[in-house]
Structures are given as C-alpha cells and as structure tokens.
Amino acid sequence: MAKTQEIKLVDLQVNTENYRFEPVASQKEAIDTMVNDQGEKLYKLAEHIVLNGLNPNDRIQTVTSSHDSTKFNVVEGNRRTVTLKLLNNPDLIDSHHHSNLKKKFRKLHDDNKSAIIQLVECTVYDNPSEADKWIKLKHAGQLDGIGTVTWNAQQIDRFEEKVEGKSSIVLQTIKLLEKSTETPDEVKSNLKSLKSSNLERLVSDPNVRDFLGIEVNNGILQSQIEEKEVVKGLIQIVKDLLDPDFKVNRIYTKEDREDYISKISKENQPNTNNKAAKPWQFNNTSKPAPTPKPKPTPISKSRDIIIPKSCALKIINPKVNSLYHELQLLSLAKYTNVAAISFRAFIEFSMDCYIEENKVTHTIDGRGILDKNSSLKTKIVEVANQLEKNKLADAHICKGIRSAANNNNDLLGIDTLHAYVHNAKFSAIATNMVTTWDNIQPFIEIVWANIK
Hints:
By secondary structure, the protein is an alpha/beta fold. It is built from 18 helices and eight strands. It folds into three domains: 2-145, no CATH class; 153-281, no CATH class; 318-449. The strands form two sheets. The protein has a five-stranded mixed β-sheet. Strands 6-7-8 form a three-stranded antiparallel β-sheet. A hairpin with a 2-residue loop joins strand 6 and strand 7. Helix 2 crosses helix 3 and helix 15 packs antiparallel against helix 16 (395-406). The chain is flat and about 85 Å long.
C-alpha cells in the first residue's frame, strides 16, 4: 500500500544505495556523492524550487526506516531531497571542493528564507519492493508503452506554444505546410515524423532564409513574397529531410547548407521576384507582419516626486488614496523627510489593505492570518508569496521584492524604511526614494489590482 504524508525535511534520509551511484556508508557520503556528480545542476534545481515549489505531479517516494520509525528513506527523489537539504543548510557542501557552489547556495538561502521548504509532501510505501515497480516505470524507458513515453521535439514545441505562448520557427514552418493547399498530402501525412533538428538547422541559417524569401521578426517567421513560392521551396526541403537516406552531414556546416540549396532544381526553387500584396506571417497569413511598437518613454529618475503622474492606481481606501496623491505632488527637494515618512506609511498601508482583503496567512510558522502588528518585512514577504502562489504576479517580480525586503542594505530594506520614521539621525535621500519606487511600482500595481 502507498499513502501520501507530509514529512519534515530533517526526517528524510538520502538513499545510501541510490541506483545512480555505488553504495555509500553514510548520509554525508550520499550527499557528497550527489554534489560531486550533479554540481551546478543542483543549484539550478534549487532556484526552480525557490520560485515554483516542488512538482505536485511527482512526489518524493519514501519508505519508513527499519531502524528508526520516525525517519523515512528516500527511494525516489534523492536529487530533490539533497537540493532541499542544501538550501536549508549550505554548510553541507564541502568548501574545499565546491566553494563557489556553496557561496551560491548560501546567497540563495539568505535571499529566500521565507520560501525554503521545511515540510515535504511524500508518497510512503510499506516496503521498497512496492516502490521499485513504479520507479522502473519512470526511469527505465517506454517499456512498450507501460513506462513514460517522452515527447519528441515537435510535441515539446506545441506544448510551449500553447502554454507559454511562444512558437519555435520549426513549428511555425510545419504549421504553414499543414494548412497550405499547395502541400501534397503525402508530405502533410509525414510531417509528424520529420526530424525537427534538421529543419531548424536549415531555417535558422540566414542564407537558407534568403533562398526561401523569409525572415525572422521578433521570433516570428514572415515573408514579403507570395506564400505559394515560399511553400514550394519548403516542400522540397521537407521531402529531402523525410528521405530515409538523408544524412545530416549534407547540411551540418554553413558551407554544407550553401552547397545543399545550390543543388535544388530550378523548378523547386521559390521565385523571390513574385512579391506578395503585403508582408505576411507564417503563424497567420491573413494578417500583415507586425510593425515594431515604439519603446515607451522611460520614467525620469530626476523627477522631484516619488510616484510619477504616469502611475495610475485605483485605491478605494480614502486615507491611502490621499497619501498616494500627495506622493505625486510632494516636492522631494522641499519636503524630503515628510515624503520619506509618507512613503513608508504608504507601503505598509498597501500591504495591510491587501492582507485584509485576501486573508493572507503566515506560511512559515502557520500562525494564521497576518494582522497589523506583524512586522513590515513579514507583510511584504507574505504578500509576495501569496501573489506568486496564486499566479497573480510574475515569479521574478516576487522574488525581487522578497530579496530586497530581506536585504538590509537594499533601498527597500526594512532597516531603511524603519529609519525614515524611527531614526532621528538618518536623513532620507531623494534619489534613493525615487529609485526604490521605480523598483517596486510593478509590485504595488499588482497589489492594488487585487484589492476590490
């Protein structure tokens, strides 16, 4: 039997007989072996975990220790377990052999203390043999369809297009051929088996694109010649790539690709003199190619107010709304300290309004909903955590806010904000307040956009 259980990280034991390596004698050796083998990959995983948490679709698999019923041996997910332990305690990394890695983990730890996981949702099996059959399905290949069937390059591209809103030049090319009436049925039916890397090698080459009469604009393939001419050239290329006897060395280098396109027969070459009525995109031939949007005028950092007039916030709380408008009028040159105190108050009131509206809770100690007596740092960090968790704000924005709030030397650091109000010897600097606002404006805009 298997069950799901939340387990303290300190109670998870790294497998000393991990199938990746030869067996070792202790937890320290198991961690050292993983660090020696994975190195920077563990840090990349740690960054991803800090931003996104653990994958809910792939829990760490464990069995209860036969020597200590309060401990759990990890049978699957040892990389994640080691990464979590290093995040919690970077001193587990050997300074002599991995000093740079240790420094990076230390900084990640210090900048993201509130996001570090202490409690892990795991699958617990009654015995290791029960877990082994599922571990094999994950790691031993497709097993005639029983195991995990991995995506090919085209399938990955389609996922990224749908979920992440980006379409590779290969997928754009394939979709153009799929919908074109010029493409023969035998070519369309075989597009799914086309090796994407070969097509990408060709379409990514500027000389090949010139030959086809296409160009790339902000990641979008487009053309100024007739669609049927472009398709004619692409059909010949795809036919060649689908040929079982085709070898990648025919197009491996730039010289190889030049030689390849020079040998395409005249009747299969696109006539780049046949211009389209207007530029068109591979993604949508009915729409003209986009014209680059003018870059917005940057906010002047030499302004004499904290919040620029271009920042439009809808604030329903009368007192906070008044503060907001006053900070758009108050001269920093004349009223530097008054502006600083008002600025600090505006940030905290904004957090209080969001916390009250959205019932923000403590994620670290489970003490329930935050109140107005909670520290300002806790308020900022927990609001950022909830915005990110609910996908209301970009992870990078929230990470930056958490990092700044936890860094006492940062302009948004809590010590700096406290000093505006409580330190009689601390004088605010106008340019620093302007920079601080510019850094946090996207975050504050999201906060007020989620307060009804």
